[in-house]
Specification:
Blueprint (H helix, E strand, L loop, with lengths): L5 H18 L65 H22 L7 H4 L3 E11 L3 E13 L7 E8 L1 H6 L19 E10 L5 E10 L5 E14 L3 E12 L3 E13 L4 E12 L6 E13 L2 E12 L4 E14 L5 E12 L8 E14 L5
Antiparallel strand pairs: 1-2, 1-14, 2-3, 3-4, 4-5, 5-6, 6-7, 7-8, 8-9, 9-10, 10-11, 11-12, 12-13, 13-14
Helix pairs in contact: 1-2
């Protein structure tokens, strides 16, 4: 029953491998690969890119076709990949994550039929992350995360499985905060837990998508939740895009809730994109609207290097009021390998932790690492 214990071990291996890679002198930079296709959006969904196209400050690995000869050579054992000469600790970690989750996918797929689909299991992709965030007011937060999504070859491939490690509160409410990207930098108040579940995507028109998800998070005191998600992309000319997302959810102990978010992207030049984004959440268990709004400038520096500059406000109406406002910047670059990214962060904000307190100035430092694995991340 290897699959029951592999996910915590996989994250631990990621941390150890990063330390080993730096210590044994394998951190020399390889020739930089061509820049990935620009996607000025919070996810890797190509439907969110304006037809005019613009570079973004969040380069991520893009599919490059057949994985043959690029580190994912099959062996005679299902889900196992052959090692290559010169592979370091990071390569071994990435390969182990892929092998483990591929086997878990194959086993899970087998529950729905006599045999699991090896082809579907071998297409699994995901990312593991580690980040440290330090605030002079709120203290230090170490975040470990995992994000894996894979489709099952059932119901016209609309059924999918998600496995991850995240803050259940933010995941269930479906709030993507911080630069409008899938950043490993989360709030200092977050509490990560393991979560997993099933999702189903309904047929829809181009630019519209409706999906349903149900899952469980936590350990002994498990949190059961369900979500209904609607998202729509509206292009306005060749340089503007509205990205709308509505989420109705239910979570045990909190009850029903609703999250609404809207992002507006405007292409300035081939290397600059301006985004205004806002999100708000209300629920039966909350006392007011939990909101956040931000203005972000993305700059593509090419060769898998980028910057993002953000000014933001956030608060809770009726209780804390305006809880934080400030600005920060993040730099992103692939190092060691094209599929491993490092993100240093620097910012300053005025923060209020409790009602009635005055806002206090706080310097924010952060450093994160993100490892992509799977045949489509090179």
């Amino acid at each position: 029953m290897r699959h029951r214990a592999v996910l915590p071990a996989a994250l631990l291996v990621t941390v150890v491998a990063f330390v080993l890679e730096a210590g044994v002198g394998r951190c020399q930079s390889l020739p930089a690969p061509p820049p990935p296709r620009p996607t000025p959006t919070a996810t890797t969904n190509p439907e969110q890119t304006p037809s005019g196209g613009a570079a973004t400050a969040t380069p991520t690995p893009a599919p490059t076709g057949s994985p043959a000869g690029q580190g994912y050579r099959p062996t005679l054992v299902p889900c196992r990949q052959a090692a290559r000469a010169g592979d370091g600790a990071l390569d071994a970690t990435r390969r182990d994550l892929y092998d483990t989750l591929c086997e878990a996918s194959l086993w899970l797929d087998g529950l729905f039929g006599r045999h699991g689909s090896l082809e579907a299991a071998e297409r699994i992709n995901g990312r593991a992350e580690l980040a440290v965030l330090r605030s002079s007011v709120a203290g230090t937060k170490v975040n470990t995360g995992l994000d894996v999504n894979f489709k099952l070859p059932h119901l016209e491939k609309r059924l999918n499985v998600f496995i991850g490690r995240s803050d259940p509160q933010d995941y269930v409410r479906d709030r993507q905060e911080g630069f409008g990207l899938r950043s490993q930098f989360v709030g200092l108040e977050s509490r990560e837990k393991w979560l997993a579940g099933l999702g189903y995507s309904l047929p829809g028109a181009v630019g519209d998508r409706v999906s349903l998800r149900a899952g469980v998070a936590g350990g002994v005191h498990a949190i059961v939740f369900g979500q209904a998600v609607y998202q729509q992309n509206i292009a306005v000319g060749e340089r503007n895009l509205w990205y709308l997302r509505e989420v109705a959810y239910w979570k045990r102990l909190e009850g029903f809730g609703f999250t609404s978010s809207a992002d507006y992207d405007h292409v300035l030049t081939k290397t600059l994109l301006l985004r205004w984004g806002t999100v708000g959440t209300v629920s039966e268990g909350s006392h007011g609207l939990d909101w956040r709004t931000a203005l972000v400038l993305y700059q593509n520096l090419h060769r898998t290097r980028a910057m993002a500059y953000e000014a933001f406000l956030r608060g809770v109406s009726g209780t804390l009021g305006l809880t934080e406002y400030g600005a920060r910047a993040i730099y992103r670059q692939s190092v060691f390998r094209s599929w491993f990214f490092v993100d240093p962060l620097l910012g300053y904000s005025w923060l209020r932790l409790n009602p009635g307190e005055r806002h206090r100035g706080s310097t924010i430092f952060g450093l994160g690492g993100e490892l992509w694995f799977g045949p489509e991340a090179h």
